[in-house]
């Protein structure tokens, strides 16, 4: 089968309404979005607190958060597998080979991305923003909301990066989810499986969905951002 | 003289170096002051200490006849003292929302905020900027928005760090014209600056920070 034939078959499969294919897409979107929804408030709060507060071990926390960015997802999957396996400390939850297990993995995968990007965005913010909020009577909570509003594009970039990392990872979903057809099979685990079987059409169809999702999210971010004029030319 | 703020002793150190050691600092009600001193004398730092943005060693402070703490900064002072940066920063909302920010933080009803913002916009002469994107305002326009944002809170003490620095022509004159109005409305104003026109404003007293001490000089009279 040529590449052209595979792409043609992939589009045919997508538009045929193949239930198994759309189930895989649904599982991927659901686990990634739920994982992101769980991780975002925790990570944004953590990123803000780390950026704005001095405490013992702060540099170590920053170092760990940034180091976790480069951890292979398969390693996170392995650690989570050991935690969730019957003899592991969280075995009683019975999350192994379930969508909840995949979501737990997605949370662990996106947390460092969100923390590191939020931390970076808040650290780069003009310190006068927080001071202006303070001198106008804002509570600590409102100072945080004000600063996060001012760095919202950085935080949104963090969320989009987190979503990209969640939906495109394969190692953790494979280990913790088990790639069970109709249940825990995600886009990436399905691509890996179908490609290994020589079934390129479904792999390409799912790859097209991944690209479409990435384009849609980035388009949404540009729309929200509104002003996309280039920076002033000062040369 | 009706004292608004009195501090028996105010010391500020940077590491081992003492920046200033002020004895018996008294700020009167409805009085304008200019705070002068050489670069590095600690003018901006003193303003920031008074605004609760910098820690310092403060002994026996009273504000509006109440004993107050600077660290943590007393709520009484936070509600009554507003500090304006040399280059005021604007939130990325509208000019009107920027002016109403402090009122919103105080839980003032929206209807009242709208009325006070309208009045402050008229006072500062910035009606044409109401829906502008604050990031694109000129330095003078930002300074007037910042003064309006402070004024809506009816501050007892307004701390202005170099309010006319980097402004020239009409923008500078417009800002200078607003200062006596603030004092006339009952606010005390301390301006860290070198601007001769501000120093020469009628009734303004001069505080000079030199060698870590504060000297008070008499007011000019109209």
Side by side, the strands of the main sheet of chain B go 6-7-8-3-9-10
Label the structural class of chain A.
mainly alpha
Instruction: Using a beta-carbon cutoff below 8 angstroms, give the protein chain pair with the largest interface and the number of residues from each chain.
Output: A-B, 16 and 21 residues
Oligomer: heterodimer
**What Rg of chain A do the Cα atoms give?**
21 Å
What would you say the CATH architecture of chain B is? 3-Layer(aba) Sandwich
Tell me the strand percentage band of chain A: under 5%
CATH fold topology of chain A: MetI-like fold
Number of separate structural domains of chain B: 1
Q: Count of DSSP helices of chain A?
A: 11
Average pLDDT of chain A, rounded to a whole number, is 91
The topology string of helices and strands of chain A comes to HHHHHHHHHHH
Structural domain count of chain A: 1
What percent of residues of chain B adopt helix (DSSP H or I)? Answer: 25-40%
Q: Which keywords apply here?
A:
heterodimer; A: 235 residues; mainly alpha; MetI-like fold; 11 helices; 75% helix; globular; B: 222 residues; alpha/beta; Rossmann fold; six-stranded mixed beta sheet; 8 helices; 10 strands
């Amino acid at each position: 089968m040529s590449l052209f034939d595979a792409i043609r078959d992939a589009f045919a499969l997508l538009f045929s309404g193949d239930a198994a294919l759309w189930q895989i897409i649904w599982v991927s979107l659901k686990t990634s979005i739920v994982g992101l929804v769980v991780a975002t408030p925790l990570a944004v709060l953590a990123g803000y607190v780390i950026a704005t507060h001095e405490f013992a071990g702060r540099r170590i926390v920053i170092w760990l958060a940034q180091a976790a960015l480069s951890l292979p997802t398969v390693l996170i999957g392995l650690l989570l597998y050991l935690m969730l396996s019957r003899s592991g400390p969280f075995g009683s939850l019975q999350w192994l080979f379930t969508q909840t297990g995949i979501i737990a993995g997605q949370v662990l995968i996106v947390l460092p991305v969100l923390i590191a990007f939020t931390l970076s965005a808040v650290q780069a913010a003009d310190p006068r923003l927080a001071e202006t909020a303070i001198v106008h009577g804002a509570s600590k909570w409102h100072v945080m909301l004000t600063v996060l509003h001012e760095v919202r594009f950085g935080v949104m970039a963090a969320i989009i990066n987190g979503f990209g990392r969640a939906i495109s990872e394969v190692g953790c979903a494979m280990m913790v989810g088990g790639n069970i057809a109709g249940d825990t099979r995600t886009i990436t685990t399905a691509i890996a499986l179908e490609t290994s079987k020589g079934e390129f059409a479904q792999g390409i169809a799912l790859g097209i969905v991944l690209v479409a999702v990435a384009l849609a999210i980035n388009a949404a971010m540009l729309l929200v951002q509104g002003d996309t004029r280039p920076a002033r030319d000062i040369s | 003289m009706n004292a608004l703020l009195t501090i028996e002793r105010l010391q500020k150190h940077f590491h081992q170096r003492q920046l200033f050691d002020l004895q018996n600092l008294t700020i009167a009600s409805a009085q304008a002051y200019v705070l002068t001193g050489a670069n590095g004398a600690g003018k901006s730092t003193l303003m920031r200490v008074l605004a609760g943005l910098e820690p310092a060693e403060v002994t026996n402070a009273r504000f509006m006849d109440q004993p107050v703490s600077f660290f943590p900064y007393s709520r009484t002072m936070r509600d009554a003292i507003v500090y304006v940066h040399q280059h005021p920063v604007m939130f990325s909302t509208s000019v009107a929302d920027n002016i109403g920010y402090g009122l919103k933080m105080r839980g003032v009803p929206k209807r009242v905020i709208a009325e006070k913002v309208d009045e402050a916009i008229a006072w500062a002469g910035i009606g044409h900027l109401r829906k502008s994107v604050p990031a694109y305002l000129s330095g003078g326009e930002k300074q007037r928005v910042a003064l309006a944002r402070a004024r809506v809170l009816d501050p007892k003490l307004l701390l202005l760090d170099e309010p006319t620095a980097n402004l020239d022509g009409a923008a500078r004159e417009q800002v200078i014209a607003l200062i006596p109005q603030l004092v006339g409305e009952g606010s005390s104003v301390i301006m860290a600056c070198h601007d001769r026109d501000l120093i020469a404003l009628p009734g303004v007293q001069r505080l000079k920070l030199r060698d870590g001490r504060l000297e008070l000089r008499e007011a000019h009279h109209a």
